[in-house]
Write a structure and sequence with these properties.
Low-confidence stretches: none
Strand content: 15-25%
Order of helices and strands: HEHHEHEHEHE
Distance between the termini: 72 Å
Number of strands: 5
Radius of gyration: 22 Å
Strand order of the largest sheet: 1-2-3-4-5
Shape: elongated
Helix content: 25-40%
Structural class: alpha/beta
């Protein structure tokens, strides 16, 4: 075979080999990595860009997000952060379609718009609204990191929990939230 003339059977073989290599690589890419997203919109946009097959290959995901409370103030704010409550529910539903998801970590920061210097002024109904969509998810290991203590009334309202809650202190950065 010369360089000038490539036999059609060789092209068919080369095409099949390339496709096989691509399929193997895609499987490794989606199975072996942790996909990290900032905000619910990142999850929903990514899901709309990949094929259903590739989406279902994802095994590990990290989602970082910020919520402002009270709930009524958040939709009026158009900047990111904070999270949009309606988009959050949608993203949790999209994550729920991942049949093979084995590990989900959610890094969640919740700030009171009017009293941001303290971490104990978060309304219970907001916490329940934010955490409730996570209860519907079926994941082997799910960890939710919060910057606020979960009140007992909220915890009992969410029982039984299918995720681990870890409390982490996060100092408020007024410049990030344009309040400096």
């Amino acid at each position: 075979m010369s360089i000038d003339v490539i036999e059609p059977s060789f092209l068919v073989f080369l095409r099949a080999l390339t496709r096989h290599s691509y399929c193997e690589a895609i499987g490794v890419l989606y199975n072996a990595n942790t996909f990290s997203f900032k905000g619910a919109v990142g999850v929903t946009r990514f899901q709309s860009l990949v094929t259903v097959h590739n989406w279902n290959l994802i095994r590990s995901m990290n989602l970082s997000t910020v919520f402002k409370v009270p709930m009524g103030i958040s939709p009026a704010l158009k900047c990111i952060p904070p999270e949009n409550y309606a988009e959050w529910e949608k993203a949790c539903g999209v994550i729920g379609t991942l049949g093979g998801l084995r590990r989900l970590t959610v890094d969640m920061t919740i700030w009171n718009y009017y009293d941001y210097r303290t971490t104990n002024t978060v309304e219970d109904k907001a916490l329940i609204f934010i955490l409730s969509p996570l209860k519907a998810l079926r994941v082997n290991t799910m960890e939710v990191e919060l910057n606020v203590a979960l009140p007992e009334v909220v915890r009992s309202g969410l029982e039984p929990l299918n995720f681990i809650i870890v409390e982490r202190q996060r100092p408020y950065n007024a410049r990030v939230f344009r309040q400096a």
